[in-house]
Amino acid sequence: MINNVLSKITDHIDYDKSTQLVSYLNIYNYKILRKNREVLERIDHFTLDGIMLILFIRIFMGKKIKRKAPDFSSYFKDMFAHFEVKHKRIVFIGGSESEIEKFVEIVKYYYPKLDVVAYFNGFNIDEEQLIQKVISKKTDIVIIGMGTPLQELLMIKMKKMGFQGSCFTCGAFITQTAIGGKNYFPHLIDKLHLRWAYRIYKEPKLIKRYLLDYPVGLKYLILDKYKSEEN
């Protein structure tokens, strides 16, 4: 299983590909996703989000793959600009009602010609009704920020129900942008790979994730890789 997952990790996303499911991978959500084989099998590509996983892949696989985080400090900046030029019809899903409204306001300021055909908060949603609305609007791109595994499960369900466009997951991106603007992470923090520390500072509730869940996730990664080499 793990070798199949690692083989899907890339630092090159084809923005023009008409149908694809793209999520991101870090130590924390690997710990969650390893329990759901269907999700891991159905997602087409993972980008790397987190220095710890980057180091793991360099050490255990001998590969250098660049970090591609789902936010404006990384590849979303160019991706949104591309979608704006190509007139892609986009739907955003995630955050609270006030957060998604503020997020769309910020996005439209920086990308005024981006064709945002609809947006929905990520709480208390009727998934089937939402998916039907997305399909009815002839949407090209859906960007979902609901946290793992809810966001991955939703985009897989979209594809099963007949959505023909592309989906990208983005975790806390919508909420972070609504709160902190386009540049949530200061440039120096991003450059020094201290995003984890900055998130703990901004969101103290995440301390358990970084101090407990990440070491456990790393343990599972190493064990899964070791078992795959034995078989």
CATH architect. name: 3-Layer(aba) Sandwich
Topology order in helix (H) and strand (E) letters? HEHHEHHEHEHEHEHHHH
Shape: globular
The share of residues in extended strands comes to 5-15%
**Domain module tally:** 1
Q: If strands are numbered along the chain, what order do they take across the biggest sheet? A: 2-1-6-5-3-4
Calculate the mean pLDDT score and round it: 92
**CATH topology label:** Rossmann fold
CATH class: Alpha Beta
Largest sheet: 6 strands, parallel
Low-pLDDT residue spans: none
Plain-language structure description:
52% of the residues lie in helices and 13% in strands. The chain has helices spanning 2-7, 27-33, 37-42, 51-61, 76-85, 97-110, 127-136, 150-160, 173-180, 187-191, 195-202, 207-230; strands spanning 21-25, 45-48, 89-94, 115-120, 141-145, 166-169. Strand 3, helix 6 (97-110) and strand 4 form a beta-alpha-beta unit. The N and C termini lie close together (11 Å).
